[in-house]
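Protocol step 4 of 6: record predicted structures for both targets in the notebook before any analysis. Target 1:
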Amino acid sequence: MAIFTIIINESPYKGERAWNGLRFARKALESGIGVNLFLMADAVYVARRDQQPPERAPNLEELLEEDIRKGAKVKVCTTCIEARSFEPTGELQACFLGKKEGGLSLGDLVKGVEMGTMQDLVNWSKEADQVITF
C-alpha cells in the first residue's frame, strides 16, 4: 500500500492550510493510501480537544477525529508543544475552551494523537511514497 506523510505547519483557523491538509488526508485514506500526519509549529493546536471554531469555519477537531477513524496515524511535535503555552495567543485564543497552567499534554489532545519527534518524522518520510506539506 502507498503511504503519504503529510506535514501541517499552520494554526487551525488562521487560514485554510490545516483544513486542506486534513481534507487531503481524508481523500488519500478513502483512495486506499496510508496516511502519516505530523503536526508541527502552530499546527499542534489542530489536535487540541474542545475546539470552538469561528462562525462558519469547519471544526478541525472533528475532521482530525474522522481521519483517525479512517486509519490515519497522527503525531504532534513534542518540541513544538513544549514551546507553546496551553492557551494559544491572539485570534486563536477564542477557539478553545478551558484554561490550564503548563503545556499541552496527551489528555488535552484528540484521542489517537501521539507525541512525536523529529526522528519520527524522518522515519515516516523515509517510508513514505510522498511527503506533502501544508
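Target 2:
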Amino acid sequence: MAQVGTTDSSDLPTTPGAFLQKGTGAFVGKVNAAGTALSYLTVIGAGNYDYYISVPATRASALAVDDAGNAYLTGATADRKFPATAGAYQTTYAPSVDPSTTPFGLPPTDAFVAKIDGTGQ
C-alpha cells in the first residue's frame, strides 16, 4: 500500500536508493504486502521557503496507484529546484501569479505530477 504526505522533518527515515534521502516536503512511501516493513520511502522535492518558520516548498496532496504498482502523486511546489524530466510540459518553476497578491506573502506555487515505479524510482 502506497501513501503520500508532506513532512517538515529533515530526518525522515528514507530507504536505501531513495530518489532524495534528506529534506522536507512531499514524500511517498510503500509498505510491503504483509504490512511489516517499508518497500520504499523517498522525499520528492526537498526545498524550503521561510515564513516566520521554515515551511516545506513542496506539498503532496493526492496519490493513485496502478495495477503495475506505479504510484502517481500530485501536489504543489514553490521549489525553484524541483526535479523535472526532459520533455515535461513545464520543466522549471514559473508561477503565473504575482507574489505580492498571494496570502501572507507566500510564494505562488506550480502544480506537479510525479510517477514513482514499484521500486521507488
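Step 5 preliminary note on target 2. The chain is about 0% helix and 40% strand. The CA atoms of residues 4 and 46 lie 15 Å apart.
Proceed to step 6 after PI sign-off.
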